[in-house]
Specification:
14 helices
Length: 308
């Protein structure tokens, strides 16, 4: 579902109001997530997971696209890093919320704790998304709660930065797609992004990994909290140092070495202390490395097609 929807979503957002599109997509994401609580069979789970990916697909590329319509190249890299850092923050609060719900609501009103977890997290997401739809901006030229002077200034900043105005209908969607697919850099970025995401796949099973330390369910969820808090701090630190030094490649290389060391320790020892230490190194390296987007160069044909 995620793969099927992401490219069409990237094309749709250029023709719709980003504030409403992203807000509705997020609200639907929360609603489908809450629907996990109704699942009673494996077939039902597959259907819900498919649609969960379908409605999740617009968010991340849509958020990056919207930011690229407002921020200059120097500003955008730092904002993307902060957006990525929100992942560590979400995992940290997810562990706390999971421990609280599973520890206190299991069996309440005849509903299993894991069902309550989906209901509560999904409901919160819907509420936040609907609120965000009213405060998110659209494009500089179409954001109604800005004055005419502010809209002109926002457009001028982008024009001054990359000599490209924010003309959202300057070319057709299919022309933009052809320009993107004809750019060899696109395929290199896809490969590098794939390798980066591959190094992070452990986070989807992280509570299960921490569970191998031998603690109970609630204690395991609580043990994930300091790990993700440390990851958040490291992400903020490397974002700051990378911004101050203007370097990205050395930061990424060193952080990936940290992640590799964590994986090696986790698989090479059975000592509880060493394994728990390794579980700090894995996300601190892999997750923080992906928070370091390269400094944007002058818009290539692929970047132009993405924004156009």
């Amino acid at each position: 579902g995620y793969l099927l929807m992401q490219l069409p979503s990237n094309m749709l957002i250029t023709r719709l109001r980003p504030s409403l599109y992203l807000g509705i997509a997020m609200a639907t994401w929360g609603l489908v997530s809450a629907c996990h609580a109704t699942v009673t069979s494996f077939q039902g789970l597959i259907v819900v997971r498919f649609f969960l990916g379908f409605v999740e697909a617009p968010f991340f590329p849509g958020a990056v696209f919207l930011m690229s319509c407002w921020y200059t190249r120097a500003e955008l890299t730092k904002r993307i890093s902060w957006l990525y850092s929100g992942n560590a923050l979400a995992n940290m609060f997810g562990g706390l919320l999971g421990a609280g719900i599973l520890g206190n609501l299991s069996g309440a009103h005849g509903i299993a704790g894991w069902r309550w977890l989906f209901i509560i997290e999904g409901t919160i997401t819907v509420g936040v998304a609907l609120f965000a739809a009213f405060i998110l901006p659209d494009f500089p030229a179409t954001t109604k709660w800005l004055t005419e002077e502010e809209r002109c200034f926002a457009a001028w900043r982008l024009l001054e930065d990359i000599n490209e105005a924010d003309e959202i209908k300057s070319t057709s969607v299919w022309t933009g797609a052809k320009l993107a697919f004809a750019d060899w850099r696109l395929y290199l970025f896809i490969l590098l992004q794939h390798m980066s995401l591959l190094s992070q796949t452990f986070q989807y099973f992280f509570p299960s990994i921490v569970g191998t330390l031998g603690y109970g369910k609630i204690q395991t969820l609580l043990l994930t909290v300091p790990v993700w808090f440390a990851t958040l701090l490291v992400s903020i630190l490397v974002t700051w140092t990378a911004g101050r030094t203007g370097d990205r490649s050395i930061h990424i290389f060193c952080l990936m070495c940290v992640a590799a060391l964590g994986n090696a320790i986790a698989t090479g020892t059975t000592a509880v202390g060493a394994r728990f230490f390794a579980m700090f190194l894995m996300p601190m390296g892999a997750i923080s490395a992906s928070r370091e987007p390269p400094v944007a160069a002058k818009a290539s044909s692929a970047a132009y097609a993405y924004r156009a």
